[in-house]
Amino acid sequence: VVKKVLDNGLRCKEIVEALLEFGQGSPEERAAVNVNALLEALVAERFSSETPQRLLLECCPDVVTVECVPEQMGNVFFNLIQNALRAARSTVRVETALEDNRALVRILDDGPGVPPALQDRIFQPFFTTHGDKGHVGLGLTLSQAVIRECGGRLYLERSTERGACFTVQLPPCKECAAPEKKPPAPPPPKPAPKRV
């Protein structure tokens, strides 16, 4: 009984820590963020022990600026990259792209992929495939909530025996988005002919 109480207490502690980590910042602290710069800083600061052969970052220079809380978005990408590194056999690739004026970030690994039977459950709260290894199953749930708050999407784009690809899609920052094209103004009316 004591062990069960301690285990549950530890699990509660891990849940609180996960919520606090993703809860950093507030909507009032949103800022225009360059996705490429955010990822480059994240890889340099929090994945410095990974070799370039293990973690590849390929940035598209045309990616739009997005509006988000930088700390929360950084935690989203940290969680996704960390999950990919756990699953990968050898390499994780992080790519940015621009599609339909939206920023896309793809995290690809060469692991065994997500089994079809689990693909509908991976975003559910407290679902984890790591058993009792200290994972509470909130990473993807909280990540998806952060992305939705920014008007974007987080989804499993594909999964095969050769690996999985998780994709984050984010709209451009409203202040930085390209202005809408206005229809051309009608030509001024022709002056009436003067009577002689």
What does this 3D model show about the protein?
With 196 residues, this protein is of the alpha+beta class. It is built from four helices and seven strands, in the order αβαββαββαββ. It has helices at residues 2-22, 35-46, 70-87, 139-149; strands at residues 31-34, 55-58, 65-68, 92-99, 102-109, 153-160, 163-170. A five-stranded mixed beta sheet has the order 2-4-5-7-6. Strands 1-3 form a two-stranded antiparallel ribbon. Helix 2 packs across helix 3 and helix 3 (70-87) runs antiparallel to helix 4. Mean pLDDT is 81; it is low at 1-16.
Q: Could you give a quick summary of the protein structure above?
A:
The chain is an alpha+beta fold and 196 residues long. Helix content is 32%, strand content 22%. The protein contains four helices and seven strands.
List unreliable stretches of 5+ residues. 1-16
Helix % is 25-40%
Which secondary-structure class do the elements indicate? alpha+beta
- Largest sheet: number of strands, sense, barrel closure: 5 strands, mixed
Into which percentage range does the β-strand content fall? 15-25%
Number of distinct helices: 4
Mean pLDDT: 81
The counted number of beta strands is 7
Cα Rg: 23 Å
Largest sheet, spatial ordering of strands: 2-4-5-7-6
Shape: elongated
Distance between the termini: 110 Å
Q: Could you spell the SSE succession in H and E letters?
A: HEHEEHEEHEE
